[in-house]
Structure formats: structure tokens, C-alpha cells
């Protein structure tokens, strides 16, 4: 079965064609800068790479370009659109209505639309991708995989905020969590690797966006992101946890509007706000050369991770494994080392030599005396989306 995995962002389209159940990736592609005259299109098939700069004014034009490429005699992977039997769509926010992978119909699309207020940057683009895919891949099943679904197992003590009850009941204001597809994928890999169905795991997803999840026996019971993808850890451009008094101070003292403050906290804060840079590789390099702002940013980011490790170990009442994943988690030995430093009392001890190993497979980086397994597990949200889509249909 050929499954097209589609991730429609506000100005981008990521895609893969994956043959299931073998999990064979037949091609990978990306369109960036949608809406611009100089959009960037890249497509990879096996060892062949193709790129092009061209005007792609909207998502419809973008998906038409992708379809034309998939059908191309030289770099394509299908002969007709009917060879795509399912399209798996990443949808960021599923609210409290969606706790599992779902076949898309009018009701599902209406529910995604109702959640626009909770994910204004993501859900509208996700729905656009669905509606366009329906017109092109007419014989394929359209399937929604929600970032929030994995976290629907959280107990009320973890997801309810201490604000008037009516806000939860009437407006569904609560913690939902994100990166669920990634956390689910790596935690299942860890459980399979450890051979333990009963387990206490902390999954640390470190990319431009960051989050941590406490996973007990395969189920999410606590996560760092909440109503939106802004709180918790320090991220590339997002502040993470912040005293809400800061918001009102900025609005009153600096005469900032709510929209301006939101823009500051989401796009001008985090590592970028602390250093002027949002790429951890650049920050790490400058830190080693003595840049004090970059050194401070690394200290702040790792301190926040350690604080959550301690909190989640307490909530789990024990810890079997710590997982590092996503771009930074998989590739930055420095951040892993700083995040695990001085956690011996929790049984977490890193091996410096093992921590330098780069691998596409599951890698253990703990010392021989560490009581907790420290695992680096490459995430693959696209494979997880294809897997969930295939399981739903079969």
C-alpha cells in the first residue's frame, strides 16, 4: 500500500510516499516559502536529488507541483494518482475530541475548523492540505493524525488549569500537549528495545520547538506544552515557561498590544532572544569561543530540561529510561551532556565517550553505573503517520 504522508504548514508542504507495511520510503520532498515568487522545491528519490526555485502562490499550486513530480517518468514513484491508497495528514490540534487516528469526513473537517482559535498558525493550513488532497487523490482514504492525540491519556490533574471551571467546560481551555506523534514513536521504540511493557520513561523532543513528556506504561501522563505550543522548555524563538505577570508588565509599561507581546514571546524570544541566534549549532560554536550570551543561553536551556526531568521523575514515581530525540536531541552531545549533569541522585549518569557517537539507530549513552538508560532515538513522524494510517485501514 502506497501512503502519501502530508504535513501542510502555513507556508510549507512536506511530503513522503511510504510503502506499507514494509515502511519503505519511496521519496521525500518539501516546498518552502509558499506564497512567494521564489519558493524552494526539493524532491529526493533514492540517491537522486532534485531542486527548483519557482513561484508557488498557494498550497493548491504546491500540491499540484508535488503530484506532477510524483507522476514524473524519471523522478516520480507512481504511474497514476490512484496508486496512492491513503493520504495521512498531520493535524496539529485535535482538541479533546480526537484521541486516535481518524478517517476524515465532513464532521471531522468541521471539528478541525472549530479548533482554529487554538492553533491559528497550524490548523487552517492542515485543513487546506486536506481539502486540496481530496480533489487530487480522489480514490484515496484521507486520514488525520493529530499531534495532540497521544496526550489524551493525561489525567485531569495534569491537564486542568487552576482557573474558573467554566473556562474548561465552555471554552475547553486546558493543556493538550503537542509533538505527540514523535513522543509516541520514540517511546514505543524504547519499550520494544527495553523489552519492558511496564515502564517509566521521559521523552525529550528537542528541535526548533521543544517538549517533554512523562510516559507510564506507554501512555502520556504529563507533558510540557499546554493549550498552545509556547510553554515549557526554552525553544528556538519561543520563551517557554514565563510568569504571566511579564505579559501584563510588557503591555502596560511598554504600551504593547496583546498581539505584539504574543509575537515577542513566540518569535523573538527563546534562544534567539537570549543570543540573537536561533540555531543551536551556531550558539554552541560561539559559546565555545567565549560568547557570554551564548554560554548563558545554553545554561538556561539545560537548566529548564533538568527541572522537568526532576518533576517528571516524581510524577512517574521512578525512572527507567530517558530519551533524547529530534534535531537537537539527536545531534547535540553538548545539550545532552548539560541536561544530564548532576543528576546522579536520580540514577542518571552519562558516558562522555558514548555521548559522542552519532547513529541512525537507537544508541545507549549512559555509563555502566547508571541506573537509568539514556537513549538517543531518531524520531520519524512520517513513518509513524504512515503506520497509524495503515493500521486504521487494515
Element pattern in H and E: EEEEEHEEHHEHHHEEEHHHHHEHHEEH
Topology-level CATH name of the largest domain? Nucleotidyltransferase, domain 5
Count of runs of 4 or more consecutive helical residues: 14
Tell me which CATH architecture of the largest domain applies here: 2-Layer Sandwich
Spans of at least 5 consecutive residues whose pLDDT stays below 50 are: none
Strand content: 15-25%
EC number: 2.7.2.1
Binding site for substrate: 90
Function: Catalyzes the formation of acetyl phosphate from acetate and ATP. Can also catalyze the reverse reaction.
Cofactor: Mg(2+); Mn(2+)
Question: Can you tell me about this structure?
Answer:
It is built from 14 helices and 14 strands. It has 394 residues and is α/β, with parallel strands linked by helices. It folds into two domains: 145 residues, Nucleotidyltransferase, domain 5 (2-Layer Sandwich); 182 residues, ATPase, nucleotide binding domain (Nucleotidyltransferase, domain 5, 2-Layer Sandwich). InterPro entries: Ac/propionate_kinase (IPR004372), Aliphatic_acid_kin_short-chain (IPR000890), Aliphatic_acid_kinase_CS (IPR023865), ATPase_NBD (IPR043129). Keywords: ATP-binding, Coiled coil, Cytoplasm, Kinase, Magnesium, Metal-binding, Nucleotide-binding, Transferase.
Summarize the helices and strands and which ones pair or pack.
Blueprint: E1 2-8, E2 12-19, E3 24-32, E4 36-45, E5 48-56, H1 59-70, E6 84-91, E7 102-103, H2 106-114, H3 123-136, E8 141-146, H4 156-159, H5 165-171, H6 180-194, E9 200-206, E10 210-216, E11 219-223, H7 244-253, H8 258-267, H9 270-275, H10 280-288, H11 292-316, E12 321-325, H12 326-331, H13 333-340, E13 363-364, E14 373-376, H14 381-393
Amino acid at each position: 500500500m502506497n501512503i502519501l504522508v502530508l504535513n501542510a504548514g502555513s507556508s510549507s508542504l512536506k511530503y513522503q510516499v511510504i510503502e506499507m507495511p514494509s515502511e519503505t520510503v519511496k521519496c521525500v520532498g518539501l516546498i518552502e516559502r509558499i506564497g512567494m515568487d521564489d519558493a524552494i522545491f526539493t524532491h529526493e528519490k533514492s540517491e537522486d536529488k532534485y531542486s527548483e526555485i519557482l513561484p508557488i502562490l498557494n498550497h493548491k499550486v504546491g500540491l499540484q507541483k508535488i503530484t506532477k513530480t510524483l507522476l514524473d517518468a524519471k523522478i516520480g514513484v507512481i504511474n497514476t494518482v490512484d496508486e496512492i491508497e491513503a493520504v495521512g495528514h498531520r493535524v496539529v490540534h485535535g482538541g479533546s475530541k480526537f484521541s486516535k487516528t481518524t478517517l476524515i469526513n465532513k464532521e471531522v473537517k468541521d471539528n478541525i475548523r472549530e479548533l482554529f482559535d487554538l492553533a491559528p498558525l497550524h490548523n487552517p493550513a492542515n485543513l487546506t492540505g486536506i481539502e486540496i488532497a481530496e480533489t487530487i487523490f480522489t480514490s484515496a482514504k484521507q486520514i488525520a493524525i493529530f499531534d495532540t492525540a497521544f496526550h489524551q491519556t493525561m489525567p485531569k490533574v495534569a491537564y486542568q488549569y487552576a482557573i474558573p471551571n467554566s473556562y474548561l467546560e465552555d471554552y475547553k481551555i486546558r493543556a493538550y500537549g503537542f509533538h505527540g506523534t514523535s513522543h509516541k514513536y520514540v517511546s514505543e521504540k524504547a519499550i520494544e528495545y527495553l523489552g519492558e511493557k511496564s515502564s517509566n520513561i521521559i521523552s525529550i523532543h528537542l528541535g526548533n520547538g521543544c517538549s517533554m513528556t512523562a510516559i507510564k506504561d506507554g501512555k502520556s501522563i504529563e507533558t510540557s506544552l499546554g493549550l498552545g505550543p509556547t510553554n515549557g522548555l526554552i525553544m528556538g524563538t519561543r520563551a517557554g515557561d514565563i510568569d504571566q505577570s511579564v505579559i501584563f508588565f510588557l503591555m502596560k509599561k511598554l504600551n504593547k498590544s496583546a498581539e505584539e507581546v504574543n509575537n515577542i514571546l513566540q518569535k523573538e524570544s527563546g534562544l534567539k532572544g537570549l543570543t540573537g541566534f536561533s540555531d543551536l549549532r551556531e550558539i554552541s560554536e560561539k559559546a565555545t569561543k567565549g560568547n557570554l550570551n551564548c554560554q548563558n543561553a545554553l545554561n538556561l536551556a539545560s537548566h529548564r530540561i533538568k527541572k522537568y526531568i526532576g518533576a517528571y521523575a516524581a510524577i512517574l514515581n521512578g525512572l527507567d529510561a530517558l530519551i533524547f530525540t529530534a534535531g537537537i536531541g539527536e545531534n547535540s552531545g553538548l545539550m545532552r551532556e548539560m541536561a544530564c549533569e548532576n543528576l546522579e541522585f536520580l540514577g542518571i549518569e552519562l558516558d562522555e565517550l558514548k555521548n559522542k557517537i552519532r547513529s541512525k539507530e537507537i544508541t545507549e549513552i549512559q555509563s555502566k553505573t547508571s541506573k537509568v538508560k539514556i537513549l538517543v532515538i531518531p524520531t520519524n513522524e512520517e513513518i509513524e503517520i504512515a503506520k497509524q494510517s495503515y493500521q486504521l485501514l487494515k
